């Protein structure tokens, strides 16, 4: 039942005003909360953008906000690091190229050694074959000399064969070591067998027991000699 008295109508009016005020306060709080949330979200977005910009600009840009001189030093260091990294990359490429060249050079050298050895073997075989071909000719001459009659004088044939053999040795730069009696003893080319009484001066060659040989000034076999004691028999 509605109170229609003046006091009742005043009370209802006050209640309506209070409800309206409460509703307005609630709407204001909601708007304020939304604004606060928006500001926080905007601040976070700005912080993210600033972080990304700082990362892109480098350490020097971030340091510049606090100390410009230090930022310049940091920027110089960053530039040096960038140059060194570039130089290092170039050196790595150069080292790889040199390594490849070294491997190719080593392979070429090994192939050259194989070819040179093969060539030397071929030359040695050819030289040996040529020498044998000439020596067997001397043997054939000796066989023919022995095939003569027993009463035949084979000395001329033997002498001719010896001359031919000496010519073959000469073509190979081989010479005999056959010192004359009375010459000085050469310990690099002579082998002293014994000392004997001789009319040759003391300490000189008395006689040659067996001649030696040398090839291209290299002694192949020393001449075996006797040395005079200086006393005549």
Automatic annotation (TrEMBL):
Keyword hit for Chaperone: yes
Localization per Swiss-Prot or TrEMBL: Cytoplasm
Chief place of localization: cytoplasm
Keyword Chaperone: yes
Gene Ontology biological-process entries: protein folding
Stretches with biased composition (Acidic residues): 45-55
Superkingdom of source: Archaea
Chain coiled-coil ranges: 67-122
Keywords: Chaperone, Coiled coil, Cytoplasm, Stress response
Compositionally biased residues, Low complexity: 28-44
Task performed by this protein: Participates actively in the response to hyperosmotic and heat shock by preventing the aggregation of stress-denatured proteins, in association with DnaK and GrpE. It is the nucleotide exchange factor for DnaK and may function as a thermosensor. Unfolded proteins bind initially to DnaJ; upon interaction with the DnaJ-bound protein, DnaK hydrolyzes its bound ATP, resulting in the formation of a stable complex. GrpE releases ADP from DnaK; ATP binding to DnaK triggers the release of the substrate protein, thus completing the reaction cycle.
Assembly and binders: Homodimer.
Protein name as it appears in the record: Protein GrpE
Gene coding for it: grpE
């Amino acid at each position: 039942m509605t109170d229609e008295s003046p006091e009742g109508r005043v009370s209802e009016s006050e209640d309506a005003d209070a409800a309206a005020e409460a509703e307005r306060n609630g709407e204001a709080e909601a708007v304020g909360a939304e604004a606060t949330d928006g500001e926080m979200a905007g601040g976070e977005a700005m912080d993210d953008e600033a972080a990304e910009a700082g990362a892109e600009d480098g350490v020097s840009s971030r340091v510049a906000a606090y100390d410009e001189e230090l930022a310049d030093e940091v920027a110089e260091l960053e530039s040096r690091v960038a140059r060194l990294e570039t130089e290092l990359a170039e050196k790595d490429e150069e080292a790889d190229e040199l390594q490849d060249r070294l491997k190719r050079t080593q392979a070429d050298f090994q192939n050259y050694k194989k070819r040179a050895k093969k060539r030397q073997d071929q030359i040695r075989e050819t030289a040996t074959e040529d020498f044998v071909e000439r020596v067997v000719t001397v043997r054939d001459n000796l066989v023919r000399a022995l095939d003569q009659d027993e009463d035949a004088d084979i000395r001329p044939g033997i002498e001719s064969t010896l001359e031919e053999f000496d010519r073959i040795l000469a073509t190979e730069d081989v010479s005999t070591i056959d010192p004359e009696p009375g010459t000085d003893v050469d310990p690099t080319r002579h082998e002293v067998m014994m000392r004997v009484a001789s009319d040759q001066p003391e300490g000189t060659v008395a006689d040659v027991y067996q001649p030696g040989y040398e090839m291209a000034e290299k002694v192949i076999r020393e001449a075996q000699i006797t040395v005079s004691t200086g006393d005549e028999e």
